[in-house]
Amino acid sequence: MTIPAVPRTASFTALLVGILLAVGLSGCAPGQGPDRTEILWDTWGVPHVYGASTDSLMYAFGWAQMRAHGDRVLRLYGEARGRAAEYWGEEHLASDRRVRTLELPEHARRWADDQDMPFGGYVEAFVAGMNAYAEAHPDRIADARTAVLPVQPTDVFAHTLRTVHATFVAGEDLQRTRPWRRAGSNAWAVGPSRSASGNAMLLTNPHLPWGDRFTWFEAQLRGPDIDAYGAALLGMPFPAVAFNDRLGWTHTVNPIDASDLYRLSLTEGGYRWDGGVRPFNTDTKVLKVKQPDGSLRADTLTVRRSVHGPVVGQRDGEALALRIAGLTQSKVFEQYWRMLRATTLSQFEAALRRQQMPMFNTVYADADGHILYHFGGRVPKRDRGGWSYWQGVVPGDTSATLWNAVHDYEELPRVVDPPSGWVQNANEPPFTATLPPRVAPAEVPGYMTPRAPAESAYMFRPQRSIEMLAGDSSITFEELQAYKNDTRMLAADRLLDDLLPAARASGRASARRAADVLENWDRTADAESQGSVLFARWLRAMVEGAEDPFATPYRPGAPRTTPDGLADPEAAVQTLETVAQQVRQRHDSLTVAWGDVHRLVGPNGSYPASGSDGLFGTFRVLKYGEMEDGRRRARFGDSYVALTEFTEDGPRAKAVLPYGNASQSGSPHRGDQFRLHAEKKMRPVWLRRDSVRAHLEHRKAF
């Protein structure tokens, strides 16, 4: 349906609700979907959204996101507009200048104009549901956030561009002026030959910062021709990782180069280009900045566009221009909608072939027993240079480095139904997606992905992933949960056999005492583990203090056994003594328990954490920030975990969203799953309406 182009006022919302429900209740053939539009919130705050039509389904999904995260999603949309300083003050100006320099609002307007129906209408309905919630419950939205209302479809697209393209794709290129930590993830697909039940199974486990634009929102969407369950990145109208009755998928961040910085030699009239001079296309933008007294001041921004893209910085008298792949691929929502509705591998891959998402590995499993790994994204075709060349700043004065085409779906690394019976990824290059390898480095252009991580230590987590999968020929659903919660520090198995003898041979009492602690340690990052605090601090100091501290660095030809050993055992012992003194001073003991230092902190309490940085080879990933009392608080890592088994009776699933499915002030679901996560437990996923009703917390009918 087409939503009328009328002013977005209270009367508009009332009109739209009537249209959506009238169309929904009369336009859905029997058996195609629910006979009414409603949201059933279960006792974990997960909305099960039932739409009589697809428009009403999306309307209700927007309503649900606003109810759970209204203040946060409005802030994100305000930032994506590049108007956050206008709404909330000077501290947002740097963000606004970045958004406006990259011209994300202009790209968003083009995306909105480029949507095909009915998909553009779905986005409009999603936005209308958000606005309707805000109008119906003004007391539940912070006064400061109402400046963003009403939400527009362009906000959804600008937010997607800011999150995916400007952060995931171009984040490392932009970090020269605004650092960000590259996200990670674990993913497994277990085929029937590796599964104890003979059913395919899927492990979904993205690792993202806890909050902001990386917030996951878990939901079930059920309407005509769709019944999907998964998690959407907040503010987006589709689950990014999900499953339906027949299939499911998850994503991991892949080592892909889909953006580049170009060095421009400035000269009179512009910049040097192919032996001549090319002028910049220049615009002057005026940004408004809210002052403490409520007045607005003007801030002027000059945007210079080159043939490569906008100028985002300057260094040594030269301009730096940024080129990002995928900015003109506007049909991301349509692609994911087709993925959600697919029922076979061929249908699913037909959706992936659209290549509207500019990056991410996809790991997939289905009820027919197929499993898939695909290194996805828009990888530019380049005429010269390997990975290292394109990771630097590229000469921008010649058309020889200007890319315009990207690799087709079939040209990207792909593994389907391997003899091993499993595929996995933990953010490493695609060559260990399964073993024996099904993707050979010689088949992949050097600029597409590195042959190995930049630092050898970052292979420990993928190797622990492979070690668990390859070591069990008959994996049960219960074992899948146990493997997901594994906290063994694989790095200890590779390094302690060198470190402990060297420490004892040093003859120094402090080194021997530290060695004794590590000798008796269980080599995990479980909450009760004693010795892990010492080991983690030592290994981090080693990695940060040397280019490669290992006797044998990572070798692609030995993907399960390298890196190994210590390049300089004596220096390693000296580092051990130094960090042992630091641990003792800070925690009064070398055997302080991991969970006494590392915490899961929410509105309702603090819990001992189990899990560590993947640097140490731990599969259960948590990263921490310092707290005032010397302890550390989890802020990054296991952000959504789901296990799915595709049985004859339909999918069986468990999940946990540690920080909870709401951020809105007063919600009981802020941090309500920290205890579950601390206890390494997961909650059942309720898929049938009768199961949801048996665990019902709140109902909203439209």
Q: In brief, what are we looking at here?
A:
With 702 residues, the protein is α+β, with helices and mostly antiparallel strands.
Structural write-up:
Helix content is 32%, strand content 24%. With 702 residues, it is an alpha+beta fold. The N terminus is likely disordered. Helix 14 runs antiparallel to helix 15. A 10-stranded mixed β-sheet has the order 20-18-17-8-7-6-5-2-1-31. Strands 3, 4, 21, 24, 25, 26, 27, 28, 29 and 30 form a 10-stranded mixed β-sheet that branches. The chain is built from 20 helices and 31 strands. 52% of the residues are buried. It is globular, with a radius of gyration of 26 Å. The longest helix is centred in the first third of the chain and has 27 residues.
Give average pLDDT, whole number: 93
User: Percent helix among the residues?
Assistant: 25-40%
Distance between the termini: 18 Å
Largest sheet: 10 strands, mixed
Question: How many DSSP helices?
Answer: 20
The assigned structural class equals: alpha+beta
- Main sheet strand line-up: 20-18-17-8-7-6-5-2-1-31
In total, the number of strands is 31
State the low-pLDDT regions, or none: 1-15, 19-31, 177-181
What is the 3D form?
A: globular
In percent terms, what proportion of residues is strand?
15-25%
Radius of gyration: 26 Å
Task: Throw out a few tags for this protein.
702 residues, 31 strands, alpha+beta, ten-stranded mixed beta sheet
Please describe the topology of this protein:
Elements: H1 10-27, E1 38-42, E2 47-50, H2 54-80, H3 84-88, H4 93-101, H5 104-113, H6 119-136, H7 153-169, H8 171-174, E3 184-190, E4 201-209, E5 216-223, E6 226-233, E7 241-243, E8 247-252, E9 259-264, E10 266-267, E11 270-273, E12 276-278, E13 281-290, E14 296-305, E15 311-315, E16 318-324, H9 332-341, H10 345-352, E17 361-366, E18 371-375, H11 387-391, E19 394-395, E20 414-416, E21 422-425, H12 460-470, H13 477-484, H14 490-505, H15 509-520, H16 532-545, E22 550-552, E23 564-566, H17 569-587, H18 594-597, E24 598-602, E25 605-608, E26 622-626, E27 632-638, E28 641-647, E29 650-656, H19 674-678, E30 683-684, H20 689-694, E31 696-701
Parallel strand pairs: 2-5, 9-19, 24-27
Antiparallel strand pairs: 1-2, 1-31, 3-4, 3-21, 4-27, 4-28, 5-6, 6-7, 7-8, 8-17, 9-16, 10-11, 11-12, 13-14, 15-16, 17-18, 18-20, 22-23, 24-25, 26-27, 28-29, 29-30
